[in-house]
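agent> step 3/5: call structure_predict on target 'TIGR00297 family protein' (Methanomethylovorans hollandica).
agent> reason: downstream docking stage needs a structural representation; sequence fetched in step 2, passing through unchanged.
tool.input:
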Amino acid sequence: MDNIERVIKKMDPVYIRYLLHASLGLTCFLYPFLPIGILALIMFLMLVVLRRSSQRSKLYEILSSNENVDQKKTFDKGVRSANNIVFAILLLLLFNYAFRLEGVTFPLYVIGGAVAISTFGSASANLFRYWKRAQLKCLARLDYPEKKYKGEDNDMFNLSSSLVMLIIGIISAFLVGAWIIHWKEIAVSYDMIFFIAVIGSVTGALFKSIPSRVDDNISILFGSCMVMWLFASFGYTVPPGHMFFALLFSLLLGYLAYRARIADISALLGASIVGVLIIVFADIFWFLLLLTFFILGGGFTKYKYAYKASIGIAESKGGVRSYENVFSNSMAALVLAVAYGIYPQHSELIMYSYLGTVATATGDTLASEIGTTSKEKPRMITNFKPAKPGRDGAVTILGELACIFGSLVIAVLAILFGRVENIPLALLVTTLGGFIGTNIDSLLGATLQNRGILTNSGVNFYATFVGAAVSGLLFLLLG
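tool.output (status=ok):
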């Protein structure tokens, strides 16, 4: 025991803190063998011990063994991190018990997978990031050109650590989930365990990439757990090979968007979640169609960017999109893709609704990015009075034409890929859905957004659902 303690004392306290964080995930392997009440009691006792930890404790001596670091700060961070993760696990176990009393299924393998992601996955990402930064600081002190390391892009650390978290999260969540269903003899396929492990890990990595006042030990655990629970409840799964392809394809395209400075890391991970789910519930064409929106949107954001910046209406951060933009414009598409997989008997209706929502997102983005460069005076959609360029709810003829063009592109792609049989109907339904949805976006911008009731993301969210509803209704009426 003394030898182990001496080894630990020689280690960097930050490494020790992250390793202790990861070790909390080992509790998952007790899940198949102990009642929920006993598991909750263990978590509660761990919480009490952590709460009562002080600088006189043995834990403090181990965590603060390096004199070159702020000992108290390292200790406090380690205890706070462990305290939050244990508290979050305790809550999930209590939820499991309470839901079971009400006859609601909250699978233990979902909780175990989420705990694995938030401990093994998150700690691995933290360890990698800390090690990489320490390595570069060391190299910068040697004879290497200083400019090679000075101002190193912080995003690259976050991107690399996100990938580490994704890989370790998927592996650990799958192993823990498989362990639980094996020993508890739960009738769930390993395909399902891998399916939710991928979804949960990408979700966890996304939450870790988003700055928040909420401790990421809590947000990652609850976020990944709720998403895994949602998709486990559908009972829908695909072979691991299909899931793996969907993940790699989505990540690759997201990475290309990131390198092209169209998306930041949160958008990369957000688009990966959307891409994986759309591909596995529908097919790759559905994702390519949505990808067309992101490509056109990102491309036309750069259109006359200097001019738009000079009059104060250009997208912030050089037009780089974040997770908010991804989800506000693609949530309706995601819902419809999931519905397509679950309700195949309504596939044609859902397809036309999907065309309408993507047409709305595309048309709205092109109308905004191209319309603001028009030489004519914009007019408010509510009363047609002249307005300043870029004002929410202001429209131009050029913008309306750009909207129609964007909607037509979506319709034509659906026709070229052979996804619709009635070509005139597809052109009409998609274009009208996109046009009406885009103008609803302008109407919401002129009213609710200008009053501060909705943000731009909120307006996009509702408008894309309206575009889907319009196209769906038109299909029912005219199809």
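agent> step 4/5: record observation. The chain has two domains: 2-237, 284-478.
agent> proceeding.
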